[in-house]
Amino acid sequence: MTAVIASGVEGIGYVAKSSPAARERIVAGAADMISRRGLNATSIRETAKHARAPLGSTYHYFPEGKQQLATEAVRYTGEWVARRLRRELEAGPVAGLRAFLDLWRKIVVDSDFRAGCPVLAVSIEEPPTDETPAALVAAADVFGAWESLLADSLCEHGAEREQAAQLATLVVAAVEGTVAMCRAKRSTQPLDRTAEQLQALVLAAIKG
């Protein structure tokens, strides 16, 4: 993963080095901005500028406005992380855990502790209406997908199903919260401490 993604969109690396399509470029730019500023402080206009895309084309691709763009940014991030997890989990849950931790460590370090997780950012902000926005639903789906990948790997390596599900939730929750702590403290120490304890729990689960 690179700290500066392709075609001039600087940030957390949600797209590969090959030039993405214009629409994907805007989604990646939105993910980066939300990871830094949160959803409420991210506008369509600033996202277009950040992605070096015409404002008109941004509204063309996302006629429903910021909520539609945010929803796609969350889903895009979710799949980007899931692809990495699937690949690393082939070597087992410990390898997957390390990759998950390393991914977020690189994001916070390469952004000088300015970027976090856009999925979490969307989750913690007050919805604009009484209805549950699509972006929040997407965030719940993404967290669930990450948990499922981790839980399935734990089960495949000997953990009981319920224990695996609980541990997978703990891993995702701990890492998401620890990333926020790293940004506040401007240090990776919280991640390093969390990594050690989570690895011990994973090893105990698959050996037990």
TrEMBL record:
Entry keyword Transcription: yes
Listed Pfam families: TetR_C_13_2, TetR_N
Domain HTH tetR-type: 20-80
Portion annotated as DNA-binding: 43-62
InterPro entries, alphabetized: Homeodomain-like_sf, HTH_TetR, Tet_transcr_reg_TetR-rel_C_sf, YxaF_TetR_C
Keyword annotations: DNA-binding, Transcription, Transcription regulation
Full protein name: AcrR family transcriptional regulator
